Amino acid sequence: MVTLNLPAFAHKTKQVDGKGYIFDLLRRKYVRLSPEEWVRQHIVNLLLTHYAYPKALIRSEGGLVLNQTLKRTDVMVYDRQGQPFLIVECKAPHVALSQAVFDQIARYNHVHRAPYVVVSNGLTHYCCGIDHDTAQVRFLDDFPAYESTAR
Fold first, then answer.
1. What CATH number does the domain containing 52 carry?
2. Contact 34, 20 (CB under 8 A)
3. Element holding 66 (H helix, E strand)
């Protein structure tokens, strides 16, 4: 896998029938290792180890219904009251973070109404704060600290 613009971590991988798998700390099982999964696992590690988000408040591959279709958020962080706080959309490193990617996370967040969204391909990351009352979006220099999840 390609080296990402995210902190390295001691990940566990294995091969099964010639296919790579990586251990997912959130789901507590090995999952198929794809370029997007590589990015997701690095983002999860970043949230857990560098920003001290509690593991119990982070969900990987969470479902949502959008226009009568089941979709999946890559990473969802909840606040202490169980409300969506941060949605992360992960793309493979070779995928450009285009307007279509931002439109995708905006559609997901229309359902969840989280105050923060992140898009990342592991090389480039964008974190945005969303004011749902005014429909204002502001780009942030960093991920929000866990302490800011207290509402």
1. 3.90.1570
2. no
3. strand 58-66
Among 71, 35, 47, residue whose Cα is nearest residue 145: 47
Gap between the Cα atoms of 129 and 145, Å rounded: 12
The domain in which residue 126 lies consists of 13-149
The residue with tokens 């429909």 is: 135
**pLDDT per position in the chain (151 positions), as tens?**
899 999 999 999 999 999 999 999 899 999 999 999 999 999 999 999 999 999 999 998 766 555 556 668 899 999 989 999 999 999 999 999 999 999 989 888 888 899 999 999 999 999 999 998 898 999 999 998 876 554 4
Number of domains in the chain: 1
Q: Please, which residues have CB within 8 angstroms of residue 51's CB and are 6 or more apart in sequence?
A: 143, 145, 146
